[in-house]
Amino acid sequence: MAEDDQNLEGDVRVSIVLMGSFQSSNEVNDIDLILIYDKFNMTKLKELKTRLANSIYEQYKIPVHYTTLSKKEYKEMTQLHREKHICIYEEKWCQ
């Protein structure tokens, strides 16, 4: 892992959840991700979003749409838990 990545990891603790049609369709217009943070740093969170968006665009040539929630907000959104989703990067508390 690069030094910049290690610095970012220490400043932002998130789980990443994939939502939407990208999970099951071959024809999609975007990727919907939910970033669920435990440790909040706005600057580093924006940096993480930029890195993810750039990497995903390089691979799939489609944009990323983000929803950013605190751990508490995510746990309270019971409707969201009923929708199809995949936790693609998991902090210990993401389920």
Fold blueprint:
Blueprint: H1 3-11, E1 13-19, E2 31-39, H2 42-60, E3 64-70, H3 71-76, H4 78-82, E4 85-89
Parallel strand pairs: 2-3
Antiparallel strand pairs: 1-2, 1-4
Largest sheet: 4 strands, mixed
Distance between the termini: 25 Å
* Count of DSSP-assigned helices: 4
Order of helices and strands: HEEHEHHE
Shape: flat
Q: Provide the structure class.
A: alpha+beta
Mean pLDDT: 82
Secondary structure: number of strands: 4
Unreliable runs = none
Strand order of the largest sheet: 3-2-1-4
Task: Give the helix level as a range of percent.
Answer: 40-55%
| Rg estimate, integer Å | 13 Å
Structure description:
The protein has 95 residues and is α+β, with helices and mostly antiparallel strands. A 4-stranded mixed sheet has the order 3-2-1-4. The longest helix has 19 residues. The protein is flat and about 35 Å long. The two termini are 25 Å apart.
